[in-house]
Specification:
This protein has 323 residues and is α+β, with helices and mostly antiparallel strands. The protein folds into two domains: 9-117, Response regulator (Rossmann fold); 126-321, no CATH class. Helix content is 19%, strand content 30%. The chain is globular, with a radius of gyration of 19 Å. GO terms for molecular function: aminopeptidase activity.
Length: 323
């Protein structure tokens, strides 16, 4: 299918290499008041080639919160949905149910800015990224995960029995979900087993935080964050979590290793999660990672230049891939 030369490269990637959209397929663009310019850009181009519908909803309070019932129903009757929202719908039960039903290909376009369609991670060769991911995924499993970082992280947890979760940054098969230009392999720590110190010195993709200026120190005991230390940004994080009044938001639920080398830390979720050499812990909901903790929140916190060791096999050392 010949596409306009005026189409931004990132939009073209979403409609081609990311989704492999075919003539006759239905497209749903979901947006909200906070990211309407992103939704309208994707809609403007998608409607020229595919049967496309755009729906607008109020922004949700947090990543993983549920969309409106109308949107949940619409997800069940479309081939490809682009979630052009302020907060991620990836971990929502509506998205999970729609993909499990077997038709939907989900693409998270949350927390985007217009310039992300012109340069950065969306310009990557996703076929080459997939080769790296597949190579790492073969080794990314075991019993004991030991995580350290240049900033001072030293965390140990069990990942025994937990399957590797892969985000290629593409949604080509029915039932798949991705978050381009994120590209990662992830494991869910077994509940109650994570202990040690996590130092967040990269980013926390949240409207009140983004790129981290002063490291945030998280004391982890028996799977939960029990203390948050640092400066002003630590205070902000402490308040965000406390306002939920729900202990599940402190659960250490994900260890996600970024593998798209075109991404750079910028304070936005997709490129930050998938930034090469870095790792994010996801806190709160862990249902996507073989876990059993439901929570009103799934928040990712990125640390730089990590070393990841699984049962003595060093996967990455000081931000450099060894497998």
């Amino acid at each position: 299918m010949e596409m306009s030369k005026e189409m931004p490269l990132g939009v073209k990637q979403l409609l081609t290499t990311v989704t492999h959209l075919k003539e006759g397929e239905k497209v749903l663009v979901i947006t909200d008041d906070g990211k309407r310019e992103i939704g309208e850009l994707v809609y403007k181009w998608a409607k020229q080639y595919f049967e496309t519908t755009m729906v607008v909803m109020p922004p949700t309070k947090a990543h993983g919160a549920e969309p409106t019932e109308h949107i949940a129903a619409a997800m069940m009757n479309t081939d490809v949905a682009f979630g052009c929202t302020s907060m991620s719908l990836m971990h929502s039960q509506a998205r999970i149910n729609a993909c499990k039903a077997g038709r939907l290909r989900w693409v998270g376009v949350q927390d985007y800015t217009l310039d992300m369609f012109e340069h950065g991670g969306l310009t990557a060769d996703f076929d080459e990224v997939a080769k790296v991911i597949n190579r790492v995924a073969e080794k990314f499993h075991g019993k004991t995960f030991h995580l350290t970082s240049e900033g001072g992280t030293d965390l140990v947890c069990s990942v025994e029995g937990r399957p590797v979760t892969i985000d290629y940054g593409t949604s080509i098969k029915p039932g798949s979900a991705s978050f381009p230009p994120n590209a990662e392999v992830a494991l869910g720590p077994v509940e109650g087993t994570a202990n040690g110190l996590v130092v967040i010195d990269g980013s926390i993709p949240h409207p009140l935080l983004n790129l981290i200026k002063e490291p945030i120190y998280l004391d982890v005991k028996d799977g939960f964050i029990v203390n948050i230390r640092g400066g002003q940004e630590a205070d902000i994080l402490r308040k965000i979590l406390a306002d939920y009044n729900d202990p599940t938001v402190y659960n250490v639920g994900e260890l996600g290793l970024g593998l798209n080398d075109k991404n750079e830390l910028c304070g936005h979720m997709a490129p930050d999660e998938g930034s090469y050499g870095n790792l994010h812990i996801g806190i709160g909901k862990n249902l996507m990672f073989g876990g059993h903790t439901d929570s009103p929140l799934h928040m990712d916190l990125v640390m730089k230049k990590i070393t990841a060791d699984i049962d003595g096999l060093v996967i990455m050392k000081d931000g450099v891939l060894l497998v």
